[in-house]
Amino acid sequence: MNLLDVSGLTTAFMTGRGEVNAIEDVSFSLKEGEILGIVGESGSGKSVTALTIMDLLPKPPARVAAGEVTFNGERLTGLSDRQMQQVRGPGISMIFQEPMTSLNPVFSIGDQIMETIAAHERLSQADLRRRAITMLDKVGIPSASRRLDDYPHQMSGGQRQRVMIAMALACNPKLLIADEPTTALDVTIQAQILDLLMDLRDEFGMGVIIITHNMGVIAETADRVLVMYAGRVIEEAPVATIFDRPMHPYTRGLLECVPSLTEDKPRLVAIPGTLPEPARRPPGCRFGPRCAHALPSCAAAIPPLETLEPAHAAACFRAKELAPA
Ligand SMILES: Nc1ncnc2c1ncn2[C@@H]1O[C@H](COP(=O)(O)OP(=O)(O)O)[C@@H](O)[C@H]1O
Ligand SMILES: [Mg+2]
User: Fold this and answer.
1) Domain with 266 in it: what CATH number?
2) CA distances for 164 relative to 44, 100, 284, angstroms
3) Lowest mean pLDDT: which of 108-117, 171-180, 217-226, 258-267?
4) What is the pLDDT of residues 236-247, one digit of tens each?
5) Assigned domain for 138 exists
6) Distance (Å) from CA 45 to ligand 1 centroid
7) For tag attachment on the chain, is the N or C end more exposed, with fewer CB atoms within 10 Å?
8) Domain range holding 232?
9) Residue 102 maps to a domain
10) Given this model, what pLDDT does residue 193 score?
11) Which residues line ligand 1 (CB under 6 A)?
């Protein structure tokens, strides 16, 4: 059984221009202990996918227009808020994009970690404290018992990110979703946080979804990769395959602008043009207007995600024709 199955997931937002699909027909699955990378430019639908799985989007304006999420054999789509609260924490836990906005500045980090644990487990104050110290220790915060009473502003960006990870792991989740967990951090800390996530996967056997716009992060961590563009999955493959023989012109473009994890070089912009907003998507292939290989026929229909070799799928009418022999 898969840990997570996402099938045909479509999330719409009501906007001034009417209802638009932020994500559309998103399908993938994840096994226990597997690290899935979701990659794509800013605005491609990565966070909306994660927040739909967690059922954390405000409804309205958001609405799950189609599809479903199954976690550990249980259908999550349609569960009540109360039932979903039981899943979040011990089932699925998430590290959010911006650590400073997710930690409450007026409570000590110890109180915040303990509150997270107390929401799901009946433990004495002393046990909660011990558990919080263990978690801080696990995520590599030195002198954890002393740092427990610190406030978020007394910690560095890297330490706050570690605290966020400690909170996310405090209830031993089966699935951890990390949404751009390293974007705000310098390269050395980034590498440390990614190593930490992989160690924790090894130790707890949890499934991990790492969301990033950085192919370098994917190369370092993921077993399998999902590439998103304008709300849709446009390629999926094991990590080595994505780097060896990417089939979608967009994925090839992303690979040409891989920023280095170890050198702090500015990002190269290799794909001309910009991602279309949901209300202004072109007809047919959404990447068409930016694609060097687009034909007039590419605008006629949305290319379906097609399996081209075992475990490798891409959504491009010309994928086979353009594939290197
Ligand atoms: N609350 C919202 N209302 C309307 N549109 C939204 C909302 N949140 C996200 N979107 C739209 O959904 C699309 C995907 O956004 P998002 O998932 O945040 O992208 P990513 O995480 O890949 O950068 C974007 O076009 C964004 O404008
Ligand atoms: Mg995002």
Assistant:
1) 3.40.50.300
2) 24, 9, 40
3) 258-267
4) 999 999 999 999
5) no
6) 6
7) C
8) 4-91+171-322
9) no
10) 81
11) 13, 15, 22, 40, 42-48, 61, 277-278
